[in-house]
Each structure stands twice: as structure tokens, then as C-alpha cells.
Amino acid sequence: MNERTIVYRFKNGLYINLTNRCPNLCTFCIKTKWHMQFDGHNLDLGGREPSAQEVLEELDKELQKAPVQEVVFCGYGECTMRLPVLLEIGRALKAAQTVGKYPPFQIRLNTNGLGNLINKHNIAPELKTAVDSVCVSLNAETEDLWRKLVCPAPGYENGFQAVLDFIRACANEHFDRVTASCVENTGANPQAVQQLAAQYGAKFNEREYLDEP
Predict the structure, then answer these.
(1) Which residue from 9, 48, 124, 180 has the least number of CB within 10 angstroms?
(2) First-to-last CA distance in the chain?
């Protein structure tokens, strides 16, 4: 198997694979059926989660090669489970841009929206210091369907409202963009999810259902 990847290029972005841990086991998640591979990259960290310094060094190498439109916290895990490391990386990138070390780019967090529940406080104000936009996998329009689709771990069974509250908290922090999404062909009603997202201050995106790599 190819060496583990902690930073990888995809389209016009650099993606950060910070952890493989996640409190959800979504029925549509590709990390199992794609055997932890993505676009030729091995995203299996083997339990060895990278430090902020390791990530920043890898990002610097890539940013020196070619500019990107965005840097995204998005691997095969929930990045807010490593909130202090996420914040350190994001703040360092913002500081580097302030002094002109890199051409401008946006910093985005892709998340399942359980960060407040994971960290036991409202993390949106902290995130605002480290990322520019937030994309939340809302996935369903009702709590029952959410549980069915995301299969939350013990302690997170009632997380649907926490996801909605997180979306609202991010919207209240005036991020450049807050987006809530669902995956097509899972049983979720995209129109209903869009309406719910709007109620909590978010834009909407319907994600493609991915099957075979």
C-alpha cells in the first residue's frame, strides 16, 4: 500500500487528513468501501495522527509548488475531534497569508457538525479565527432519518439538534459561507433539508452519492 497521506491535492485545493476518527459511521461513507483510498492517496493514518507542525510542513511544500484556491480540513475522519491542532494549523496559515508568504486562498472546514458536542462547548468563535467557511454534512431533515443514515456512536444519538445548533452558531459568527448538505439517493428529501438549512442560516448543497472508486 502507498505511504499514508496527510496533505493531498484535489481539483483546486489542498486537503488535510487530520484524523481517521469519527463519531458517525454513515451508511454512504466511502472510506470503508474505498479501503481508505481517495484519488490515488492512502488516507489511512494507521493510528498515527499528524502534529500541527507535520501538517504545516507538508502544506508549505505543496504551496511552494503551486498556488491553490483553498485549503480544506477534510480527510477520512472528523477534524473537530482534534480541535486544538486544527486551530493551530488554520491560525498559522492565516498568519502566513497576512505577511504575504503565500498567494491568497480560502480555508474551509468540512465537518459532520458534531464539533460542539465533541468538545463540550460552542467552538464556532474559535473556528472563526482559523477558517473562512464551514460545510456541514446535515444529511437529513429529521432526527430519526439522521440517526438511520449516520449511525452515531453511543453518546451522539441525539446529535441532530447539536448539528443544527452548530450551523446556527457558525452563521452567527458570519463566516464567509456556511453550507449544509445532504447526499443524493439516501432517502433524505433535498428540498426539506434545504429549507431546514435556511432556517438555521446556511446555504445548501446536494452531494453526489459515491459508490465504486
Answers:
(1) 48
(2) 16
